[in-house]
Amino acid sequence: MATSVEPLCAHLLKLNGDPLPSLTFKPFDLASSNQRVLGVPHPTDTVTPLALRPSIAGRDDNTDGVDLGTAVEAVKYLQAQEGGVLTKLLARHGTLLFRGLPIHNAEDFSELATHLGINLTRSSELSLTGNRLLPIESPQVPHAPEYIFFYGHRVPVKGGETPISSSLELFYRAQRLNAPSGVWKEIQDGDDEPTRRRKIEAQISRYGRHTYTTWEWTDDGKTLVLTHRLPAIHTQPNTNLHTLFTRLAGYFKYSQGGRKNVTQQLYGDGTPIPEIFLERLAKITDEIRIPHKWRRGDVLVYDNIIAQHGRQPWEAEQADRVVPGKPF
């Protein structure tokens, strides 16, 4: 696939009379197995992820010696344009890959993420194991993160790819299916049942879900059943395109792995969603996903409204830095 190689700053006017930054970002192609042209309703020839690397005038693709401060200034310049250049690219492509930046640790990564101009809520370092299916981040809460950042600090010897797919494309195709319209860490071993229940209920309340989440104790108070009532369809700002903001496909796949009845998927009126619909939804998700093959120092930025992410199994150690952006 051919990606425009015009540096992102090349066409921008000077801001407040300041000169253009010495470093810009140039789109480049990934292997066809790691980059995909998105389908309807995305604009024609829109790829995900959009891969960007630093570029300095007169150096071709040689960016040796580029320091983090220079890269941050370029990011700040782009984001200072009306609407934010990188923010607009995220809204179109769903996922941006930054490769070749001088990022060597979590502190460097956090500095870059901060200057993208997105209000960060928290950051955490993860060492994940197993297979993580394609989810939207936190669809079960009323205020999910709008953006998600990943930084690859240690790359696994084998596996560990991050699948990427479009929630807009998933919703568009799902419409044609003709379907009907770390919580308990404060509990101590010596806590009695009333104390355990009180702590659990307080933890649920702390997330501010209010009327979106209700709970019921069953089996003489030993089992807690949570019910989340949230809209499954969101609208992308500016385009008014609908996106399927759920983990329906992921929960269905988990249920097929011997974890039945852990999570039930219901319509708003409480009736079960037919399994044949969930199965087809999972199939579409597999068809439209593309795996990202990590390199050390890679930074992935997701528009959480329109892009899904996951994780494939891997061998050897892998560590990531994850930063959720402002809630919407």
Descriptive keywords:
328 residues, alpha+beta, Double-stranded beta-helix, 2 domains, 7-stranded mixed β-sheet, 3-stranded antiparallel β-sheet, 7 helices, 18 strands, 23% helix, globular, oxidoreductase, TauD/TfdA-like domain-containing protein, TauD-like_sf
CATH architectural category of the largest domain: 4-Layer Sandwich
Mean pLDDT across the residues is: 75
The CATH homologous superfamily of the largest domain corresponds to: Clavaminate synthase-like
> Could you tell me the radius of gyration in angstroms?
21 Å
GO molecular function: oxidoreductase activity
InterPro entries: AlphaKG_dependent_hydroxylases, TauD-like_sf, TauD/TfdA-like
Keywords: Oxidoreductase
Domain TauD/TfdA-like: 72-316
Summarize the structure.
The protein is of the alpha+beta class. It has helices at residues 68-80, 85-93, 106-115, 167-174, 193-206, 248-256, 275-288, and strands at 23-28, 36-37, 47-48, 50-56, 95-98, 124-126, 147-154, 158-159, 162-166, 213-218, 223-228, 233-235, 242-244, 290-292, 299-303, 307-309, 314-315, 319-324.
Walk me through the topology.
Blueprint lengths: L22 E6 L7 E2 L9 E2 L1 E7 L11 H13 L4 H9 L1 E4 L7 H10 L8 E3 L20 E8 L3 E2 L2 E5 H8 L18 H14 L6 E6 L4 E6 L4 E3 L6 E3 L3 H9 L18 H14 L1 E3 L6 E5 L3 E3 L4 E2 L3 E6 L4
Parallel strand pairs: 4-5
Antiparallel strand pairs: 1-4, 2-3, 5-15, 6-18, 7-15, 7-18, 8-17, 9-14, 9-16, 10-11, 12-13
